[in-house]
Amino acid sequence: MQETRILVIDDDESICGFCQSALARLDNVSVTTEYRGRQALRLCDSNRFDLVLTDLNMPHTSGMEILKRVKINNPDIPVIMMTGYPTLDNSLECMRLGAADYVLKPLLLDDMLATISRVLEEKRLQQENRLLRHQLEKKSSMGEILGASDAVNNVKDAIAALADTNVDVLIWGETGTGKELVAQNIHNNSERGMKPFVPVDCSAIPPDLFESEFFGHERGAFTGATQRSLGLMEYADGGTLFLDEIGELSLPQQAKLLRALQERRFRRVGSREEVSVDIRLLAATNRDLKEEVKSRRFREDLYFRIHVGEIRLPPLRQRIGDVELLLGHYLDVFGREMNRLDRSPSDEVLDLLKAYSWPGNVRELINVVRRMLALSKRKTLSMDDVPEEIRAQLGAGGEQGAMGGFLGEKARVLARFEYDYMSTILRNCSGDVSAVARHAKISRQSVYRMLERLQLDANNFRGELNDV
Prior knowledge:
Distance between the termini: 52 Å
CATH superfamily of the largest domain: P-loop containing nucleotide triphosphate hydrolases
Helix content: 40-55%
CATH architecture of the largest domain: 3-Layer(aba) Sandwich
CATH class of the largest domain: Alpha Beta
Strand content: 5-15%
């Protein structure tokens, strides 16, 4: 766990010494003391500390100046004032400027330690509340993994099994299959769900900034390093670090990362002090890392380090039964966003999209939905709304191409299956659309669209025996 860093400022060196020895009684705390006013201001500017304990009345730099300086640089750092001459005006002014509390001189050991412990606990709770709100917002925006196919259910089962553990996980999948969504779901459903989830696009980090980005740097470590900066691993402390496209890292970068992952320890650039972190690693790749290891483009030891748990994501072409569900979901989502409400595909469009191979997977499907909505002028999406490259690939232009016979036959088979399937479920559920949606694992909106397309009336099945 990362240590708590406390800065004590007082022009009386004996007070600094007393606080230094007293605070040593707290667990995992490091203390820096300063009795010189100008040097104290420079320390406040460094943004290195988790709490500041400062005297109010000092000859060269007042505690009010210290308080203002800290709150300008980082409002989240609590400041506790020490004073031997408390007045109502001073107390009110300190609180107005953002002081967390104050302690009276002469300092009483138990009172001082109790105040500092309480303020640090309040800060921790505030951070956890912010993280909780952030994670809930993130979870809502990311959404759940959509699909009712066996392939998707297998992924959901794997997420449930691995979320309860603390092992590192490697997520395989083509571009656009939702690797970050899977990583976010693992994190959200783990015991770290209320802690940070830090995603990193490994392909976007310049080689010369790799160490600074991952491990952070100290002030003055290189030109332009005007203050201490925490690295991505330190930001993920207590939570999850997600390395997307880890196969894009160079061999030197892999070597530096391996040691940090093995030890969960590293040094910031420009520092001799080691920092320990408690992180869970999730990594993703669209490459076959086994082949990369054989080709000596990926370190074998790093491969075994990250490859403890494994989830393989199916491409959309292997779960084509989910296309209609995904299509309905994103038509609803982006229809509201783009003021294109209640749009639905014609049978011809739906059959075409089911026959398409989706090389860009779900990400491509999302793009296609947005493009179709942007072009659509009617409630029912027609072939004219489908991107030309998809129609051209499947020979579904103005004239029937080579795939026309296949599409027609596939449409007839699917229509027969859908009609028989929905008729059976409607009968078993006595026409209850909500029960049908639960049984079929699709949304009510998708059920209504399918019933309309198949010309089935749920009311005709009401009162029949429910066998579900």
